[in-house]
Each structure stands twice: as C-alpha cells, then as structure tokens.
Design brief:
heterodimer; A: about 120 residues; 4 helices; B: mainly alpha; two-stranded antiparallel ribbon; 9 helices
Chain lengths: ~120, ~260
Amino acid sequence: MSNQNQISNAPLILGIIGGILGLPAAICSGACAAGFSSLTDNATQQTSDEALKVFLWIGLLAAFIGLISAFLYKKQPKFWGAMMVLAGILSGITLVTFNFLSFIVCILFLIGGVISLTQNKPSL
Amino acid sequence: MLRFIEIGNNQFIPAYNLFVGFGIAMAMLLLQYQRLFLIKSETEKHTIHLSLLIAILLGFIGAYIFDAFSQNITLSFDNMNGIGLTFLGGLISGLIVFVICLKMSSLPLLPILNLMTLPFCIAHFFGRIGCFMAGCCFGKPTNFLFGVIFPNKSIPHYHYQELIKIHPTQLYESVFILCLVLFITKFKVKNQFYIYLLTYSLFRCMVEFIRADDRGTIFNQDIISPSQIMSLLTATLVILIILTNKILQKQKHKWQQKITN
C-alpha cells in the first residue's frame, strides 16, 4: 500500500464542498456588496456595479482555487494546502458583506488547507 | 422541496449546491478506497484526479451550453441568468473531456471508466436529491401513490400556479441509480461503465415522457426532447461499441488459433 494512503482525505471533502458552495457564496457577496454600496452617500449605479463585480470575482476565484486544491493536494500537500488557505483568505475578504455562506466556505477552506499543510509529501 | 436550508437568522444554504458538493465529495472519497485505485502509482492517481477536475469543470460548461442550445437561447453575458444546466449535456461533455485526458496521458481507458462508475453513481444519486430539494426537473401531474406536492414558492408551484401532486422524477432517477449500484456490487458486473451508460440512457428516455419542466426543442419538433435524442444516441453508441468489441475479440481469437495451428 502506497504512502499516499496515509494522507488525510479531509482536505478533499472540505475543498470540494467549499468549492461548490463558493459559487452561490460569490453571487451572494456580489449582491450584498452592490446593496451596501447603493446605501452610501454619492452612490451611483456604476459604483454598485463595480462593487458587485469585485466581490463576485473574489468569491469565484476563491471557489475555483479551493476546488482545484482539493483535487490536486495529494501529490504536493504543502503547496496546494497553502493555495487552499489562500482560497480561505479570499473567501474571508468577502465576509465584509456579512454573507454567512462565505463564512462557511472560508472555514472549510482554512481547515482543509491547514490539514493539508501538515501532511508530508508521499515518498516514492 | 426545500430550496434553501435555513441555518440562522435570515441565513440560508442553497440545498442544490450542498447536495451536489456532498455528492462529488463522497464520490471522490469512495474512489480513494477502491481496491483498483489503491494499487495504482501516485503519478497515475494524480493524473486521474487532474483529468476528473478538468472533466468536472468543462462538464458544467457543457451542461450550460447544451441547455442554451436546447432552449434556443443565444450564449451571452446578458442571457446568463436565463440558462440552466442539463445533466445529460454535462455527462456527455465531461465524459468526452475525461476520455481525451486519459488518452493524452496514455492511461487504459475502459478499466479506469469502470473504476469511476460506482463513484459517479454516488455523485449522480446525490445530485438528483439536490434537484428534488431545489424543485427543478419536476414531473407532470399525477394521482400516483408516490406523487409529491411541492410547497408554495417552489419552482413547480410557479409553473402550475397551484399546489398539485406531481411525479417526483428526480427521486425516480435517484432510486434507479441506487438499484443500479446494488446490482453492480452484488453481481460483481464486469463492464460497469457500459451497463451504467446503457441503462441510464434508456431509463432517462422513459422518464422524459413524464417530465413537465421546459425540455427545449431540437430539429423544430417537440415530440422527442433533446435529452431523449441524446439518450437514444448514447444507448445506440454503447451497443455499437459492445458489438464491435465482441466481433474484434472473435476475430482476434480466430487469428490466434490459426497461428497456433
């Protein structure tokens, strides 16, 4: 049995669920950001649209990176673990929109990333 | 049925995404413990993971494009909200991408597809439960014993404008997939992938007759839905591949006998 089997499967589960949930989280973040932006003084349609795009793309990027990390971490646990932590941080940025779904995604990626970072690369 | 799962004060998790994510996660977890996957080298495992990742991502895009095509919606950023996902479109496009990735990596095709069948059935099962929760892919009205009334503000309610008992076509598919999993594991079926593709195509073709959501149109007719055409083509292709393989095996056997004689 290969050494790779000693690597935890937790980042796989957490990363996939976080990645799939990250898609609606990104949409929610964008919508919330646009909503908050429209409440500020001197708010315009353009500023709301820009706020929506920024948070939407940050959320999507986080989901994308987290999902890729989940599939590829077993060969390079440290690198992809760090990427999953990065995805968690990006999801954390969207928390300023008070989006609870982003919070769940952030936690999933951070836990998965930390577990992956503590794994050892399988020896050949 | 329960489109959003409430987890706090005005905080929700979309049930469809949760179930799809859970399904893919369980499928990948099952794959890690498959005996034939465990004995593969780390490079092969990594290649299979990478191929799966690419296939899943491009499969979602394929599902999106197929839905746009069958609904006659032009693909553009403005129309994105009006386009959904079609499972068969995703399955076929994801499968094509997966096969291309395996071929490029010089990995054996059929053994790996057979290895992926059970995990894929698990993902499919949970995906359809997700559809049931979201209320999409709903059926026609019925008084059948297993008919289901979807709640207010659900997709079927918006479609029918009343609380009416309808076929839970999503659950029919889930039960079918579950029975297929039990059949494959109990009878230790050899060519699992062919069995899955053939039986699911035929089953999907039958279920389409009791589906009531907008099926789209193809070739300017609405007798057979685009998914039925895809299902029939898939089933035909699988039968042709099986027959071709059998003929080629017989020819090979005859040649080998001639050589030994």
